[in-house]
Design goal:
This protein is mainly alpha-helical. The protein contains 22 helices and no strands.
Length: about 525
């Protein structure tokens, strides 16, 4: 030790300056000697070796100086100070990347995970300034290590989720950029296993975040988006056809991201109308892209089995409901009508979707009647064609349609309305013959059918529309069979109809000469 002190004293008193590599090597040896004495419980000797490191000459603003500060902070267990020293070291003059490798080993041995994360991030940043296949492969390996480390930090007691979750997503985003760049260079196949690990880890983290990350809806959505993009890179990188699960997870991740953003926007209250409209339009664009993406997988039936195809088709229908919801918030009724028209051309799963869309339109006070009517009419046609709508719901929407038609009061609208009413009468008659049916046509809707048919018949008769009046009165008479005290009501309707008809006939008869 005495010889080392004498040598370092001579260096300090001379104009000679050690190179950064020589300085680092000397320091490493001195600290190793100190470590040996420390582990042998020779405390005074250990302290002497650690203190002698202070005699190594180096300028205060060079990387070697900060490396010494890093070593001292680690030995003293001061992690925050060690992190600051590492950051200063990277930005200092004469910085050598090998110092980071030494710092990585030091942080790992000391168990300082946050310091290790900081050093690994700096190491990754240093790699991103260089370009070569070897560097790309090293960067992807490094970013995987960083992600693993962040995941370990997240599960520690009292972990700072508000800080670590964005850090995690940031590194997944970096990983995505790295593999996309390799894909552009036709090198993605070389890291297919790494990409597989990345998309699975990102997807699982997003799923976990749904229940464990508080107030992080947007972050979870971002992570699902990253997982989906990694999946797409992976599907393009594998030499053979990708497994079915890859396309299934592309759909799940894409749908989850959009659904999360729709749910989140429902709770956003913004006084800035322009900003809110911009958010809504962005989400609408996301919905449209997601729908096209999923439809593309559906159209290629080789990628999914029948069970997955049915479930995936249901996602498309939910996305149409989301489209309608966002279109209503934007007051974009053209888009809302386009969704309805698209749904009319859709499959058998559309009935429930129609009903959900109609519910949304029904409560929108600004919704044009034509848009609402098109949706309601589509529900009835879909339910009658596919026999999939319950009697109760059929009666509800049939009443809504007829109310709109009769309020217009044109001959064409009344003709359409009486056809719907006659269809409802047929449903009543069919139901009366089905003894095993658990559904019943609601009584209040029967009463509405009866009153509306009778009143419209009277109005038509007064307007000299005899043929129309006859159909309305016949419908009301038939409905009487399915309401309380129906026989008496039917007799009164027949009597009233006969009296009105006689009065009409007499008024139309030529006067006596």
């Amino acid at each position: 030790m005495q010889e080392a002190e004498n040598a370092l004293t001579c260096l300090s008193s001379s104009d000679y300056e050690l190179s950064k590599i020589s300085t680092t090597a000397c320091l490493t040896l001195l600290w190793q000697f100190g470590d040996r004495q420390y582990h042998a419980k020779r405390w005074l000797e250990a302290a002497d070796w650690f203190l002698i490191g202070g005699l190594v000459p180096h300028p205060a603003n060079e990387a070697a100086t900060y490396y010494v500060a890093l070593l001292i902070a680690v030995r003293q267990g001061l992690e925050d100070e060690a992190i600051r020293a590492a950051e200063d070291m990277v930005n200092a003059s004469n910085f050598n990347r090998k110092m980071l490798l030494l710092a990585t080993s030091l942080a790992n041995e000391s168990g300082m995970k946050t310091l290790l994360l900081s050093v690994l991030e700096a190491l990754l940043k240093s790699l991103q300034t260089r370009e070569s296949l070897e560097v790309d492969l090293e960067a992807i390996t490094l970013v995987r290590c960083i992600i693993r480390l962040v995941l370990k930090l997240l599960v520690e007691p009292a972990s700072n989720m508000a800080v670590l979750v964005p850090v995690l997503i940031g590194h997944f985003s970096t990983a995505k950029s790295l593999v996309e760049a390799m894909g552009a260079k036709k090198n993605a196949a070389l890291v297919a296993k790494d990409i597989s690990w990345l998309w699975r880890t990102a997807y699982n983290c997003a799923v976990q975040g749904c229940s464990q990350w508080e107030n992080s809806e947007e972050k979870v959505c971002d992570l699902f988006d990253i997982a989906r993009q990694l999946l797409e890179v992976y599907s393009d990188s594998v030499l053979a056809d990708a497994d079915q699960e890859v396309y299934t997870h592309i759909i799940y991740a894409s749908f989850a991201a959009v659904a999360g953003r729709v749910f989140a926007i429902r709770h956003v209250v913004s006084n800035d109308v322009t900003e809110q409209a911009t958010r809504l339009r962005t989400i609408y664009g996301d919905i449209t892209s997601c729908k096209k993406r999923i439809q593309g997988v559906i159209d290629n039936e080789k990628l999914l089995d029948n069970k997955d195809l049915i479930q995936t088709a249901s996602f498309v229908h939910v996305l149409r409901v989301f489209e309608t919801e966002i279109a209503c918030q934007l007051k974009d009724w053209t888009r809302a009508l386009d969704v309805v028209q698209e749904l009319i051309r859709s499959d058998a799963l559309a009935v429930n979707t129609f009903e959900a869309i109609a519910d949304i339109l029904w409560v929108e006070k600004d919704c044009p009647t034509e848009v609402l009517f098109t949706a309601l009419e589509a529900i009835l046609h879909a339910s009658l064609d596919r026999a999939t709508l319950s009697v109760e719901k059929f009666s509800r929407w049939m009443r809504a349609i007829c109310t709109i038609l009769l309020s217009r009061n044109s001959a064409a609208d009344r003709a359409k309305a009486i056809r719907y009413v006659e269809q409802a009468v047929n449903v009543l008659e069919d139901q009366s013959t089905e003894t095993d049916s658990e559904e019943t046509y609601p009584l209040d809707e029967r009463q509405w059918l009866l009153g509306t048919s009778y009143n419209t018949g009277v109005e038509c008769l007064h307007a000299s529309l005899l043929d129309e009046a006859k159909r309305w009165f016949e419908a009301s008479t038939t409905v009487c069979r399915f309401v309380p005290d129906g026989e008496n009501r039917a007799e009164k309707i027949s009597e009233t109809y006969a009296q009105l008809l006689a009065r009409y006939s007499s008024s139309m008869a030529p006067p006596n000469s």
